[in-house]
C-alpha cells in the first residue's frame, strides 16, 4: 500500500508542471496533499505532513470562492493542521484547524458534506479541549456531533439518544484511519453503547458487532505497543552483545515474536520489527547453533525485505543480512547454491552503494562480508580468482574504515583469515606474517575488553603464531600462541565453540613442550565446556552438529590426567564428561525419579511435568496454548474433547467384550489389524454398525480437536484404527474403575471423582490409567510438531517453547540440588555408583589417546588402571580399516596389545566351564569402538588365549548409560507377550536376501514355543513405531544403512525406506521406558557403526538408539554380515534364551554360544584346509582318505546380507571373512 501511495505522489507531482493554468489545479494539489497526509500516517515522516499543509494552504489560495470542492479543501487542511498540532502541540496550529472547520460548516450545502465537516470540527475542538481544558470546546463538540448522547441516555434513558450515539459512533469508527492511535478508544465506546442497547432490545447482530469491535480494539492496542516493545527488544539485544547473557537474547526474541503476531505486514513497524527479530535469531544461532534459529533468521529476514520499500535506505542492509544467513546455511549444510546466492547478493549491494557518499560505512561492511564469502568459495572451488577477490575485498574494507569503528576489528580478523588461507596455498612466509599483523590489529581494535568476540580473534591469532613457530623455531612465537589460546579459553562470556577450540589447541601446545600439568589444566577446563556446547534446548541433530567439534577431547583429557598422576576415577569422570553427551542428555531427562519421589514427591511431580513438556508432544501443545491469549477457550476445548473421547473409548471397550463373548469372535481386537470386521458384518451387522459408528465418532472428535488448534501444527494421524488396542485397554480400565465404590462417575463430564482420588485409593489403577492415557495421546498426536515442515511458524513456536522449558528445568534442577540429600541430583556419578554398576561383572573402559592408552578396570570394590603401552593410536587406525579389521592378525594384535593384559589383570586366566562364564562389559573409546574386542585372541584349535574362551562379552557406550539402565524399572505393570518379527527378504532397490525368510520362519516357531504372540505382517515405519511400545521382542532381518556423515540418519531398511525412514534420530525421540521392550535383535549390516571420526565420541548408531529408546538388550553388528550365517546366529541365540529363560544373562550367553559355534566351525575348516594342503604330497590312497574327512566339514560360502564377496572358492581360508566376529551385545 505504501508503494502505491508513493507512486501516486510522484505522478501527481510530475503532473503539476502541465497544470499551472488549468482550473483543475486546486483539485490535483488537494489530492497530492491528501496522499502526503496518508503517507505521514503510515511512516510518521513530518516532512510529508509539512508539505501536505503547505499544499493545503496553496489550494485555498488558488480555489475560487464558488469552487464546488471548497468545503472539502477546508476540511482537509483543517485535518492536516490537527495532525500537525498532535505532533508539535502548537496552539496557533490547532486554532487555525478549528477556524477552518467552522468555515467549512458555514460553506456546506449538502447533508453528507455537513456530517463530515461537523465530525472534523468536533475532532479538532475535542483535541483543543484535551490540551487547553476549555469546557466551551467540549460543549461545542457535544452539540455538533452529540458525542455525549450515550451519557444523556444513561440519565434520561431515551432510546433515541442512544441510537443516535451508536450511529455517530459507527461513523467515527468507520472514518478513523485503521492504524490511528484513537481507534481503540472509538471501538470501546461504541461497543459499550451497543451492549447497553442489547439490554433494552436484544439483537444478535449487535452482539456480533461488539465481538468484532473488541477484537479490532485489542489488535490496534497491540500495534500501538509495538514501537515501545521494539525499542525494548533492541535494548535487550544490545545488552546481550555486551555481556553474552543468553537470557537477554531470549527475551528480545520473545518480544519480537509478540510484535510480529500483532502488527500487520503493511504497518511501518513490521519491516523494522521483523528485521530486528531476524538479527536476534541469527545471534542465537551463532551462540547455540540451532538450525531452527538460522531458518528463523532467514524467514524473518525475507519478510523484512518484502515489507521494505524499494527506495528505502534500509534495503541494502536487509539484503546484506539475508546474504549472511545464506552463507551460514552453506557452512552448516554444504549446499554451494546458498553460497553462490550470497555472493551474488553481496556483489549487487556493493555495486549499488559504491559511489554513494551516504552509504560508505555500509559499503565497507558489504565488502568485508563479500570477502568472507569468497574465502569460503575458494575452499570449495580452489579457484585463485575467489582467493584474490577475498583478499582484495577485505583490504578495501579495512583501508576505508577509521580506527575504533565498531566493525573494524571484525574487518581485520576476516582479512587475516583470508591471508592465512593464501599462506596455506602459497607457503609464502610474507603471507603468514601479514595475516599475523592483521590478527594482532583485530585484537587491539576490539572494545570493550570483555567483548565476546575476543575469544574467536585470539584463538585465530594463536593458530597463526603456532604456524610461525614451526618455521622460525622462535620460542617467543610459541609463547605468544599459548597466551592467545589461554586468554581465549579463560574468557567466560566468549562463544563456547571458540573457547573449546582454543582449549584443544592449548593442551596440544603444552603437550609438545611436555608441560603435562598445564596441558591437563587446559584439557580439564575445555572438557567442562563440552556439555555447554550441547544446550538442552537444542534438537538432537543440532547437538550432534556442535558436539562433533570436540571429538577426541575427552580421551585426551583422561590420558593427560593419568599422565599427571590422577587416579582412574578422575580420568573416568573426564571421559564421561567429554563423551556421549547427546545420549546422556536424553537419559538425564528420562531418569528414574524413585529417590526424588521418596524425598520430595512435590518436586518429583514438578520435574515430571516439565520433563513431559520437553518429550511429550501433547504436553507441549497444551503448554503453548495455555501461554497464549486464547488459552482459556482452547484449553476448555481440549478438556471437553478429552472427556468426549474417553466416553467413546469406554463404550468401545464394553462393545469389544460383547463381541468377544460371541462364538467365533473370541480373538476379535487382540491384534493390531481390525481383522474379523467382514465376518462380523455378515453375521452380526448391528454390532459391526455400532462398532464403526463409535470409531467414526472417535476419529471425528480427534479431528475437531485438531481443527481447533490447527495453527499449532498438530497433525491428524493417518491410521487411527491401528491404535485400537490402546483404546480398548483404556476403555476397559475406565469401565473397571467405575465398578469400584465411590468411582461410579470417574471420567464422566460432570463427574466428581478425579485422578487424584484414584491415586489415593487405588494407586495401581491410577498408574495404569496415566500410562495408557499417555500412550494413547502419544499415538493420537505423534510427532505433533513437524520440525522441518513448511509451517515455519510452528517450528519457531516449538523452538522458543523448548528454550523456555529448559530454563524452567534448569531452575528446577538447581532447586532440587539445594535440598538435603539431593545434592547430586543429575550430576556425574560418584565412586559408589560407578562400582555398584559392576555388581554383575567387571566393566572395562579403554581410553585411546595419542598421549597414552590405558584400561580402567571397574569392579564392585575397586577402580584401578593398567597402562597399555603397546597400543599405538596410528596402528589402531590402520587395523580398523575394512580390509584389516576382521583378519586373524588383527585379532591377534588386539589380544597382545589390549584385551590379553586386561583379561589377565582381571584374573580370568583359563578357559571357563560353560555353566559358569564370567561376564565383562567393554566400553571402548575413540577408534577402538570400531574394533572387535570380544573376538580378539589367538584362534587355533586348543587355544585358550582368546576373549571368547575366557569370558562373555557385552558392550556399553558409557558408565552413565549402564547406571541409567540398571536404575530403570523393568517390571512394567503390563508385561507384553508380543514379538514383532520382520523379515525383509525383498527390499526395494537392494539385493535379495534368500535366507531372511528362513530366519523369520525359524524364529516364528521358536517364539511360539516361548509363548509369544508373533506379529509378522508389518514392514512399514508407521507400523513399527506403533507396535514397538507394546512388544517384548523386536527382531529385524534385512538390510541396514549406516550414514557415516550423519549418524542420526542411519536406518533399518523397511518396505517404505525411500519415503519414510526409521532413523536413529526418530528412535531417539521415542520413549518406551513406561513399558520397556526386553530385546531388540538387529540382524542387519553395520548397526553398530557410528560414523566418521568427528562423530566417534558420541557413539551414535542403531544399537545405541534402540537402547536409548528403552530396550533393555540390543544385539547388532559392527559391519557387514553373511545372510545364511545370520540364521544360525539368531537360532542359536534364541535357543539359549528359550532353554534358560528370558533373563538378562540368557541374551549375552545365547549370542556368546552362537559366535563360539561359528568360530569353532571356522577353526575346523581351517584345520581341514591345512590337511588338504598337506595331502598334495601324500600317496593317492591317503589323499582320498583326507578328502573324505574334509568333505564332512566343508561348507559353501552363502550370499551376504550386505555386500561381501562370495569366497567359497578361496584357496586361502585365512583370507575368507570371519562371519562370527561382527555380532555384539549391548545391554545388562
Automatic annotation (TrEMBL):
Q: Which Gene3D superfamilies match?
A: Tetratricopeptide repeat domain
| Basic and acidic residues biased stretches | 1184-1204
Q: Where is the CHAT domain positioned along the sequence?
A: 890-1227
| InterPro entries (UniProt xref) | CHAT_dom, TPR-like_helical_dom_sf
- Ranges for region Disordered: 1184-1212
Pfam families, alphabetized: CHAT (PF12770), TPR_10 (PF13374)
Protein name per UniProt: CHAT domain-containing protein
Task: Tell me the lineage of the source organism.
Answer: Eukaryota, Fungi, Dikarya, Ascomycota, Pezizomycotina
Amino acid at each position: 500500500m505504501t508503494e502505491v501511495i508513493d507512486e501516486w505522489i510522484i505522478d501527481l507531482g510530475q503532473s503539476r508542471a502541465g497544470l499551472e493554468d488549468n482550473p483543475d489545479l486546486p483539485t490535483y494539489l488537494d489530492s497530492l496533499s491528501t496522499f502526503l497526509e496518508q503517507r505521514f500516517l503510515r511512516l510518521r515522516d513530518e516532512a510529508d505532513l509539512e508539505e501536505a499543509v503547505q499544499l493545503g494552504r496553496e489550494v485555498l489560495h488558488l480555489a475560487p470562492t464558488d469552487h464546488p470542492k471548497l468545503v472539502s479543501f477546508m476540511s482537509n487542511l483543517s485535518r492536516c493542521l490537527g495532525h500537525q498540532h498532535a505532533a508539535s502541540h502548537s496552539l496557533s496550529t490547532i486554532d487555525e484547524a478549528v477556524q477552518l472547520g467552522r468555515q467549512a460548516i458555514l460553506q456546506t450545502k449538502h447533508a453528507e458534506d455537513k456530517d463530515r465537516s461537523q465530525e472534523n470540527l468536533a475532532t479538532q475542538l475535542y483535541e483543543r479541549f484535551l490540551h487547553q481544558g476549555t469546557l466551551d470546546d467540549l460543549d461545542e463538540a457535544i452539540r455538533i456531533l452529540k458525542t455525549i448522547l450515550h451519557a444523556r441516555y444513561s440519565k434520561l434513558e431515551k432510546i433515541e439518544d442512544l441510537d443516535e450515539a451508536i450511529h455517530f459512533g459507527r461513523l467515527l469508527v468507520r472514518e478513523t484511519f485503521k492504524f490511528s492511535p484513537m481507534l481503540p478508544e472509538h471501538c470501546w465506546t461504541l461497543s459499550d453503547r451497543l451492549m447497553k442497547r442489547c439490554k433494552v432490545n436484544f439483537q444478535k447482530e449487535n452482539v456480533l458487532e461488539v465481538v468484532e469491535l473488541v477484537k479490532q480494539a485489542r489488535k490496534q492496542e497491540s500495534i500501538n505497543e509495538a514501537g515501545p516493545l521494539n525499542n525494548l527488544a533492541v535494548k535487550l539485544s544490545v545488552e546481550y552483545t555486551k555481556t553474552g547473557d543468553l537470557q537477554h537474547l531470549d527475551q528480545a526474541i520473545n518480544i519480537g515474536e509478540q510484535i510480529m503476531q500483532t502488527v500487520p505486514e503493511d504497518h511501518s513497524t513490521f519491516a523494522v520489527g521483523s528485521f530486528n527479530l531476524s538479527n536476534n535469531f541469527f545471534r542465537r544461532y551463532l551462540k547455540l547453533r540451532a538450525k531452527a534459529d538460522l531458518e528463523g533468521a532467514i524467514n524473518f529476514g525475507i519478510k523484512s525485505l518484502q515489507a521494505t520499500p524499494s527506495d528505502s535506505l534500509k534495503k541494502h542492509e536487509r539484503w546484506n543480512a539475508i546474504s549472511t544467513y545464506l552463507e551460514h546455511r552453506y557452512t552448516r549444510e554444504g549446499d554451494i547454491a546458498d553460497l553462490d546466492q550470497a555472493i551474488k547478493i553481496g556483489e549487487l549491494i556493493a555495486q549499488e552503494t559504491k559511489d554513494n557518499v551516504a552509504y560508505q560505512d555500509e559499503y565497507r561492511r558489504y565488502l568485508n562480508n563479500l570477502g568472507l564469502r569468497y574465502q569460503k568459495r575458494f575452499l570449495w572451488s580452489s579457484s585463485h580468482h575467489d582467493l584474490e577477490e577475498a583478499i582484495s575485498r577485505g583490504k578495501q574494507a579495512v583501508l576505508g574504515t577509521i580506527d575504533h569503528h565498531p566493525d573494524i576489528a571484525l574487518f581485520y580478523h576476516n582479512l587475516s583469515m583470508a591471508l592465512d588461507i593464501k599462506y596455506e596455498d602459497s607457503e609464502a612466509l610474507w603471507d603468514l606474517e601479514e595475516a599475523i599483523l592483521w590478527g594482532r590489529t583485530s585484537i587491539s581494535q576490539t572494545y570493550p575488553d570483555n567483548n565476546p568476540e575476543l575469544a574467536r580473534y585470539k584463538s585465530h591469532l594463536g593458530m597463526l603464531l603456532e604456524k610461525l613457530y614451526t618455521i622460525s623455531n622462535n620460542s617467543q612465537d610459541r609463547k605468544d600462541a599459548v597466551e592467545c589460546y589461554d586468554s581465549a579459553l579463560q574468557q567466560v562470556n566468549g562463544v563456547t565453540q571458540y573457547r573449546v577450540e582454543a582449549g584443544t589447541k592449548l593442551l596440544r601446545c603444552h603437550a609438545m613442550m611436555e608441560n603435562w600439568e598445564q596441558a591437563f589444566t587446559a584439557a580439564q577446563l575445555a572438557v567442562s565446556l563440552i556439555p555447554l556446547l550441547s544446550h538442552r534446548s537444542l534438537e538432537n541433530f543440532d547437538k550432534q552438529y556442535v558436539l562433533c567439534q570436540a571429538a577426541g577431547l575427552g580421551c585426551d583429557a583422561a590420558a593427560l590426567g593419568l599422565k599427571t598422576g590422577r587416579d582412574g576415577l578422575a580420568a573416568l569422570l573426564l571421559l564421561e564428561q567429554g563423551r556421549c553427551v547427546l545420549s546422556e542428555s536424553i537419559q538425564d531427562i528420562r531418569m528414574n525419579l524413585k529417590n526424588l519421589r521418596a524425598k520430595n514427591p512435590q518436586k518429583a511431580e514438578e520435574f515430571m511435568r516439565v520433563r513431559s513438556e520437553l518429550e511429550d508432544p501433547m504436553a507441549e501443545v497444551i503448554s503453548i496454548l495455555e501461554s497464549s491469549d486464547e488459552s482459556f477457550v482452547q484449553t476448555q476445548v481440549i478438556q471437553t474433547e478429552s472427556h468426549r473421547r474417553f466416553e467413546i473409548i469406554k463404550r468401545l471397550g464394553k462393545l469389544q467384550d460383547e463381541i468377544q463373548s460371541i462364538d467365533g469372535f473370541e480373538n476379535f481386537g487382540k491384534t493390531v489389524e481390525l481383522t474379523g470386521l467382514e465376518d462380523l458384518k455378515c453375521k452380526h451387522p448391528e454390532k459391526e454398525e455400532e462398532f464403526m459408528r463409535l470409531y467414526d465418532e472417535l476419529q471425528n472428535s480427534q479431528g475437531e480437536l485438531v481443527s481447533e488448534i490447527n495453527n499449532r501444527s498438530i497433525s491428524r494421524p493417518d491410521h487411527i484404527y491401528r491404535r485400537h488396542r490402546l483404546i480398548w485397554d483404556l476403555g476397559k480400565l475406565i469401565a473397571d474403575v467405575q465398578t469400584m465404590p465411590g468411582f461410579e462417575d470417574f471420567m464422566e463430564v460432570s463427574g466428581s471423582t478425579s485422578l487424584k482420588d484414584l491415586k489415593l485409593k487405588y494407586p495401581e489403577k491410577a498408574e495404569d490409567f496415566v500410562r495408557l492415557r499417555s500412550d494413547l495421546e502419544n499415538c493420537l498426536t505423534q510427532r505433533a510438531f513437524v520440525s522441518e515442515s513448511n509451517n515455519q511458524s510452528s517450528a519457531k513456536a516449538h523452538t522458543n517453547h523448548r528454550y523456555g522449558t529448559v530454563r524452567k528445568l534448569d531452575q528446577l534442577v538447581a532447586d532440587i540440588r539445594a535440598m538435603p540429600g539431593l545434592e547430586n541430583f543429575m550430576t556425574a556419578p560418584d565412586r559408589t555408583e560407578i562400582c555398584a554398576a559392576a555388581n554383575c561383572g567387571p566393566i572395562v573402559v579403554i581410553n585411546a589417546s595419542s598421549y597414552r592408552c590405558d584400561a580402567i578396570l571397574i569392579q564392585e570394590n575397586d577402580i584401578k588402571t593398567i597402562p597399555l603401552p603397546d597400543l599405538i593410536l596410528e596402528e589402531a587406525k590402520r587395523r580398523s580399516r575394512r580390509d584389516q579389521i576382521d583378519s586373524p592378525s588383527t585379532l591377534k594384535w588386539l589380544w597382545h596389545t589390549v584385551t590379553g593384559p586386561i583379561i589377565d589383570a582381571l584374573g580370568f586366566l583359563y578357559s571357563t566351564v560353560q555353566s559358569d562364564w564370567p561376564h565383562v562389559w567393554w566400553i571402548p573409546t575413540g577408534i577402538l569402538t570400531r574394533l572387535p574386542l570380544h573376538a580378539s585372541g589367538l584362534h587355533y584349535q586348543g587355544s585358550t588365549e582368546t576373549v571368547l574362551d575366557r569370558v562373555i562379552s557385552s558392550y556399553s557406550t558409557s558408565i552413565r548409560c549402564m547406571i541409567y539402565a540398571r536404575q530403570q524399572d523393568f517390571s512394567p505393570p503390563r508385561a507384553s507377550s508380543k514379538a514383532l518379527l520382520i523379515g525383509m527378504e525383498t527390499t526395494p532397490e537392494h539385493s535379495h536376501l534368500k535366507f531372511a525368510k528362513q530366519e523369520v520362519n525359524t524364529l516364528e516357531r521358536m517364539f511360539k514355543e516361548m509363548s509369544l504372540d508373533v506379529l509378522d505382517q508389518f514392514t512399514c515405519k508407521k507400523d513399527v513405531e506403533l507396535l514397538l511400545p507394546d512388544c517384548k521382542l523386536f527382531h529385524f532381518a534385512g538390510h541396514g544403512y549406516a550414514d557415516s556423515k550423519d549418524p542420526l540418519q542411519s536406518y533399518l531398511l523397511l518396505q517404505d525406506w525411500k519415503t519414510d525412514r526409521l532413523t536413529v534420530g526418530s528412535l531417539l525421540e521415542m520413549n518406551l521406558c513406561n513399558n520397556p521392550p526386553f530385546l531388540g535383535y538387529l540382524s542387519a549390516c553395520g548397526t553398530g557403526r557410528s560414523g566418521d571420526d568427528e562423530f566417534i565420541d558420541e557413539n551414535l548408531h542403531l544399537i545405541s538408539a534402540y537402547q536409548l529408546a528403552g530396550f533393555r538388550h540390543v544385539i547388532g553388528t559392527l559391519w557387514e554380515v553373511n545372510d545364511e550365517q545370520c540364521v544360525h546366529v539368531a537360532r542359536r541365540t534364541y535357543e539359549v534364551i528359550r532353554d534358560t529363560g528370558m533373563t538378562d544373562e540368557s541374551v549375552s550367553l545365547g549370542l556368546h554360544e552362537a559366535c563360539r559355534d561359528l568360530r569353532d566351525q571356522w577353526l575346523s575348516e581351517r584345520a581341514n584346509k591345512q590337511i588338504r594342503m598337506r595331502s598334495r604330497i601324500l600317496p593317492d590312497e591317503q589323499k582320498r582318505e583326507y578328502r573324505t574327512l574334509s568333505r564332512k566339514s566343508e561348507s559353501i560360502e552363502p550370499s551376504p546380507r550386505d555386500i561381501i564377496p562370495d569366497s567359497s572358492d578361496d584357496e586361502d581360508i585365512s583370507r575368507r571373512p570371519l562371519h562370527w566376529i561382527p555380532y555384539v551385545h549391548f545391554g545388562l
